[in-house]
Design a protein that fits this description.
Layout lengths: L14 E6 L4 E10 L2 E10 L2 E12 L2 E9 L5 E7 L1
Antiparallel strand pairs: 1-2, 2-3, 3-4, 4-5, 5-6
Length: about 80
């Protein structure tokens, strides 16, 4: 995925992951820019279930906007947006 640079930002992207097979849990994530929105995508596994969390943070005028989308087993989907 290609990152679009904004003035005053640092290049590159980050990612992380962890796994605990004894507990049956794991996660991996990476972050990137999508125009003026900072996006973090996380894939989680919990005791045989898998779900994805996508978080978006951006500024619109004087508001900070946080949005998350969760997609889980059976393609169940939920999303919320909060304006600060």
């Amino acid at each position: 995925m290609m990152q679009r640079m904004k003035p005053g930002t640092i290049g590159g992207f980050g990612g992380s992951g962890n796994c605990d097979p004894d507990r049956g849990v794991a996660s991996s994530s990476f972050s990137h820019w999508d125009d003026d929105t900072f996006v973090t995508e996380t894939l989680r596994r919990h005791k045989g279930y898998e779900f994805t969390v996508i978080e978006r943070v951006r500024v619109d005028g004087t508001h900070l906007i946080y949005k998350h989308e969760i997609t889980g087993p059976g393609e169940k989907h939920d999303e919320r947006e909060i304006h600060f």
